[in-house]
Amino acid sequence: MSKITVAIDGYSSCGKSTLAKALAQKLNYNYIDTGAMYRAVTIYCLRNGIIQKSIVNQKKLMDCLSDIEVSFRYNTVTKTSEVFLNGEHVEKEIRTMEVANHVSAISSIKEVREKMVILQREMGKHKGVIMDGRDIGTHVFPYAELKLFMTADNDVRTQRRLDELSSKGEYHTFEDVKRNLEKRDHDDTTRKENPLIKAEDAVVLDNTDINKEEQLEFVMKLIEDLLLTKDEFNQAPSKH
Ligand code: DC
Fold this sequence. Notes:
By secondary structure, the protein is of the alpha/beta class. The protein has a single domain (about 5-225), classed as Rossmann fold (3-Layer(aba) Sandwich), CATH 3.40.50.300. The protein has 9 helices and 10 strands. The strands form 3 sheets. It has a 5-stranded parallel β-sheet. It has a 3-stranded antiparallel β-sheet with strand order 5-6-7, covered by helices on one side. A hairpin with a 2-residue loop joins strand 3 and strand 4. It starts with a strand and ends in a 5-residue tail after the last helix. The protein binds 2'-deoxycytidine-5'-monophosphate.
């Protein structure tokens, strides 16, 4: 059966990664969380004094950019690819509020994006990939067979993020988390370099009022229809 590329973009905490992981498992595809890559670079910057008092020292970052290596390794227990920064497993650390508060600034830097996009295209070049982020359908894989644009009500998203953080022992107020989400959405949609916008041919998925199972079923149906058409097309006898 043919393989396709599924590009998932959308606002912060819309459940992109939950959907992407479930699709990857069902289809036996690779899941690439591109937000995790920008978060890993942010950790490097926080640890190496490139971000100080929330200010990014761009000159220092440019000098160090070639020393930052971001990669993924498949974890057979969690059945998902986990992110590594210069060989160190940072999957847990990337989810902290400190990283969330600084990642938009790092991900808006052209040179950082260019470096990450090269890796993303390399990882997806054989198709059979579900990639989520902000510019996947518009920039990284503009020819992806399926593009989804995810959104949900701000309060619903805030509560989901709050639950995710508290399940990891990080406690914050609803207002703090909401402010962070709204700021990131604002930064991600208004930045100069490949901002978050809906690709013209993306399917909008608002999951405010639907649960994970309903959402998965809806998207699986889209994918099955696509695969069927693709395979029928490939098998059609040539008219010449
Ligand atoms: O999906 P996430 O919340 O883990 O992403 C973290 C940040 O990285 C988010 O604020 C926007 C940025 N990002 C991006 O600019 N482009 C991507 N392809 C993925 C994430």
